[in-house]
């Protein structure tokens, strides 16, 4: 087996921009520390709503060229974060953005939501067995906020993690590998509340302010098991968010998606360990996702 960096982090996301919003500071921090950071994005985000009027022609109901455009945005964002290994599940365009829950796009041929988990998972097994990450980060079973591609990304990531560890499962995809720790993306309720209070006080230019329920993965503080202090990488994260210009409008430490509702950008990022041994004493948060992982 080829030489691998000592610490290897894999993140599985649904669309370009999800990685930066959820984990941008974490990714920049570990990349700067010499860890291998691998991002797998499951779709090109073809169904995203376009914010800048001069890019509106890319939209799926017009030229339908948003996917290729977002490949470029993602590459620019990863450059800002210092992440060199970013891939699309099964290759670019293999699975299409399914749109918001309930839309007819959910059932389109090739839509990620319309794909059997067991047809998508082998593509990720191949990545896992090649990169051999000790840590996997993905969404919770609700996909953080119910978007079909986020739910499916969760299912595929969890299924692939299990299959990768089984030596009897498709040996042609590489030598079996067990991921030591699996985390779901989270935001503690108190942090979300504090962020929105800051946003209201700041009086930014967005037409409205989002609600806490609009923020994916908000849970009670007691569910948080890991907290990554990414303040040193706040500028990197903001720059990466600006790189996703078709989807995100950034205003200082705040941003808005296509709904024009302001929300706080978090540079401390939070996680819940759902598989593997915690690297902190009971009741204490980890401050390193690799804590407790044997060298
Ligand atoms: Zn998304």
Automatic annotation (TrEMBL):
Keyword Transport: no
Gene3D superfamilies: LmbE-like
Coiled-coil regions, chain positions: none
UniProt GO BP: mycothiol biosynthetic process
Keywords: Hydrolase, Metal-binding, Zinc
The keyword Endoplasmic reticulum belongs to this UniProt entry's keyword annotation: no
Protein name: 1D-myo-inositol 2-acetamido-2-deoxy-alpha-D-glucopyranoside deacetylase
């Amino acid at each position: 087996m080829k030489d691998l960096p000592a610490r290897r982090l894999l993140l599985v996301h649904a669309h370009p921009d999800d990685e930066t919003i959820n984990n941008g500071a974490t990714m920049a921090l570990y990349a700067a520390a010499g860890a291998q950071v691998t991002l797998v994005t499951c779709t090109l985000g073809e169904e995203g709503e376009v914010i800048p009027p001069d890019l509106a022609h890319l939209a799926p109901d017009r030229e339908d060229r948003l996917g290729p455009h977002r490949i470029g945005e993602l590459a620019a964002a990863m450059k800002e974060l210092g992440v060199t290994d970013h891939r699309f599940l099964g290759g670019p365009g293999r699975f299409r953005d399914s749109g918001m829950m309930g839309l007819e796009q959910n059932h389109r041929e090739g839509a990620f939501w319309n794909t059997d988990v067991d047809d998508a998972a082998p593509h990720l097994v191949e990545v896992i067995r090649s990169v051999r990450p000790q840590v996997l980060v993905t969404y919770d079973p609700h996909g953080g906020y119910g978007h079909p591609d986020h739910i499916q990304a969760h299912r595929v990531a969890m299924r692939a993690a299990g299959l990768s560890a089984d030596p009897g499962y498709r040996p042609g995809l590489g030598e079996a590998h067990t991921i030591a720790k699996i985390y779901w993306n989270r935001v503690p309720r108190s942090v979300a509340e504090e962020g929105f209070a800051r946003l209201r006080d700041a009086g930014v230019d967005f037409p409205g302010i989002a609600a806490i329920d609009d923020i994916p993965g908000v849970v009670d503080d007691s569910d948080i098991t890991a907290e990554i202090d990414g303040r040193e990488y706040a500028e990197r994260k903001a720059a990466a968010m600006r790189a996703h210009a078709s989807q995100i409008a950034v205003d200082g430490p705040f941003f808005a998606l296509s709904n024009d509702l302001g929300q706080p950008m978090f540079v401390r990022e939070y996680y819940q360990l759902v598989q593997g041994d915690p690297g902190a004493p009971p009741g204490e948060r980890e401050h390193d996702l690799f804590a407790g992982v044997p060298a």
